[in-house]
Design goal:
Structural class: alpha/beta
Mean pLDDT: 90
Radius of gyration: 17 Å
Helix content: 25-40%
Number of strands: 8
Largest sheet: 8 strands, mixed
Number of helices: 9
Order of helices and strands: EHHEHEHHHEHEHEHEE
Strand order of the largest sheet: 1-7-8-6-5-2-3-4
Length: about 230
């Protein structure tokens, strides 16, 4: 697929969604997908994000998927329901002890990246992985929930070869860089997707990928918050 993507200029290459969907149609025809209505919670993926993720997942037919940032489990569920035999490892911080929804200024939540991350952490602690609650055991059997700081994991040793990774955890530059370095060690032939590229709230992913040493083969789909890299080992 990478040879069919093109965009001018250095750095992250911005492409139209159609440039991703056209080779997908050629490869897979009219393929149904399973998606819930887009989530309404702050911090979730958009409908366009979902289309990007599912299109890229089809191209690499993954057996092992890593998601950094389980949050409420919406994307986790989407990945599970659109893969037949892939094992999905979803990583998020251990549960804390938040007991109240009070204390957050929603205007600031929508405008301050660090404050937004603290709010999202609290929401996960209060609500939990609600989108996974009604999945049948036959699907949940393919899910591995990992409650650990994502930057402390050695994915290559602990999981092995990863075919598809979705990085949507901590949004500060240091965490993005650490997550990416760890994931790149484990994804030799596959796809890495970063969420919150070009976000108006979180700047870490955009800042990280603005360094040309970090983004030689990275594409951003216009109208989405997704940037992706297709990795091929020589």
């Amino acid at each position: 697929m990478a040879d069919k993507l093109s965009a001018e200029g250095p750095g992250v290459k911005t492409i139209k969604l159609r440039q991703l969907l056209e080779p997908h149609r050629e490869a897979f025809g009219v393929r149904p997908t399973k998606m819930l209505f887009p989530p309404v919670e702050i911090g979730s993926v958009t409908l366009v994000d979902q289309i990007v993720l599912l299109s890229l997942m089809d191209f690499c037919t993954p057996k092992r998927i890593v998601e950094i940032g389980t949050f409420l489990g919406y994307t986790t569920r989407m990945l599970l329901e659109n893969s037949s035999d892939a094992i999905i490892y979803s990583v998020d911080l251990p549960q804390g002890d938040s007991t109240t929804k009070d204390g957050f200024d929603l205007v600031r939540v929508l405008n301050d990246g660090d404050y937004n991350d603290r709010y999202l952490t609290q929401q996960r602690e209060l609500i939990g992985e609600t989108y996974l609650a009604d999945l049948p055991e036959s699907i949940l059997a393919r899910l591995r929930l990992i409650r650990q700081d994502s930057t402390t994991l050695n994915y290559a040793d602990d999981i092995g070869r990863i075919d598809f990774a979705f990085i949507d955890g901590g949004h500060d530059l240091e965490t993005v860089a650490a997550d990416t370095a760890c994931i790149r060690q484990a994804v030799k032939n596959g796809v890495i997707v970063w969420h919150d590229y070009s976000s108006g709230i979180h700047s870490g992913v955009t800042e990280f990928l603005s360094n040309e040493d970090n983004c030689s083969e990275v594409f951003h789909v216009a109208g989405s918050l997704c940037a992706f890299e297709i990795r091929k080992q020589a």
